[in-house]
Amino acid sequence: MFEFDQYLGFLAFLTILTIGFWLMIFLLTFVIPYWIFGSSIERLKEIRDERKAKRLNA
Known about the structure:
- This protein has 1 helix and no strands.
- The chain has one helix at 4-57.
């Protein structure tokens, strides 16, 4: 059915495909939401500090 080099190529293909699949799952479920949530928290802190600075200067 397969010769040895074809078998190794098929295994390499499956390995790369599996690594890519799990990397996408990891990025979509952890990294991207963490990044979005953290940046929005930082932006809200900046807005709050700007309002506080305006209130103190006015």
